[in-house]
Amino acid sequence: MDIFIVSIVLAFIIISLYTELVGPAFTFLIGIIVLGIFGILTPKEILSGLANEQIMVIILLLLLGDIIRKTDLIDRLFDKVFRKTKTYRGFMSKMIVIVAGFSAFLNNTPLVAIMMPYVHNWSKRNNIKPSKLLIPLSYAAILGGCATLIGTSTNLIVNGMVTDQLIIPGLEPLGLFDFTLVGFPMIIIGSIYLILFSNKLLPSKTDVISDFSAQTREYLVEAKVRRNSKLIGKTIGNAGLRNLKGLFLVEILRQEKRISAVSPFEVVKEDDILVFAGDTETIAEMINADVGLELTEIGMFSRKTHTEVLEIVVSHNSTLIDKTVREAGFRGKYDAAILAIHRNGEKISGKIGQVKLKAGDVLLLLAGDDFSKRSLDTHDFYLISKIREFRKLKWYQTTALFGGTALAILLSGLGIISLFMALVVLLIIIQLLKITSPKDIAKSIDFNLAIIIALSLALGTAMMKTGMASIIANFIISVFKPFGPYGLLFGIFLITNLLASYITNKAAAALIFPISVTAALNLGLPPVPFILVVAFAAAANFITPIGYQTNLMVYGPGGYSFKDYFKIGFPLTIIYMFVAVTILYYGYIV
To answer: Which of 308-312, 443-447, 553-557 shows the lowest per-residue confidence on average (mean pLDDT)?
Structure first.
């Protein structure tokens, strides 16, 4: 009876997730509550996932990634590698090689956490949806992690099981590169697959951050040609100023002269003021961009350690009406500089500082720390949204943030301290050094993600507890056993991968490992390929977001649904299965 109920709940969860019947968190909540009502899961078992260390590690890493994203330091670091890369496939190729290479020897979870902010920002700058890149980022980490013993915790767990079974004749602990025979070819094959098909198979979705901040308003913004700028002496066309993504060159202000309908052959001169029309995201990106231009209204704000790009609208009873931007005195009164102006249905020209404000004007501000306090009771304008946040760190804060992150990964990798404890200590230090605040950390927690992970672990517990997982495993293996060693390896890969997608990869490996080794010994076959196939199948998890921690990490920021993972991950899983089984069969059995 219990197995029947678990089967119905599992079917409901799968159908709901892939058809998006209700939200993922609510889907799992309904399913697990049903299991609780029928007594299959106790309240303690339902809630046990919330105390799971891996859930907290994922949440802490996402928090750390969000802190790093706000500093823009990671952009400068990765810009050295990706600076000249402007195409989707070019960026994808470099990203996959770097991530897969590093994840073969480093914990891939923090690696993805560090890369996510840069991938997100690069995609915005190059007018590519982050959803086209974040799943490939996760998959690249998985592909690389499968290539060595230390690349993923699943491989280490399987090796631990091998160590416990050393009484079996001919069985030895797995070596560092025992996984490379399959892992390295799959890095190449998997990379080619992702480069060729990701753009076609992945959706163009607005991610959570974009959904919050994206606006369709077109602003007027001024940028001054810096002294010693590389643009000086170049024509507008050669300098690429007519092709800046998200910006259109409206006119040039040169001393008292105004040049409209700018020719591509117009030569850029020092102190020229270029007037662009652009959107909020593009203008925000210009603040720290190294393109030889500076926004004219920033001034001393460029030296502030913490600033925010905000949108406000001038109210109808505002004292700002009919005052020019300069006369409005935003700097002294509100600790903010007006970067750009949008006036719906009306063209604005001339210097921004000389534009007279009207009711309904939307202003883009670069605001300091005192803005919220000084504007609290004002009736001059209303806050619309926060577009971007910038933090400039002092040398010791930068050292603590990046040095602490590297040290946390190193110490956890060496087994000196758990990654969870290392990250907790690091976040405390970050707050003590005022790199971020407790309020900002609380706002950044993805509670939906925590609920999904915790309840998916409870579902795995129900499948193990009722014996459903064992029944499925034994049935699949019995079906494939008559097809000989080759067919049996396929069956083991298939069931391990399927279970890993829903009851976690570690639980799937623990369940199938003894079945796989026993099957090999009963048939008089070498156990090593049957051990390795369990490890690869458990770790190479591409078809659901809940099957692997890096898949979960990109799930929310990419705005993905469960079926997005299946659409691109299922073909990759089939490829992985054929490659792994074929190499293991001909490498160890034939």
So the answer is: 443-447
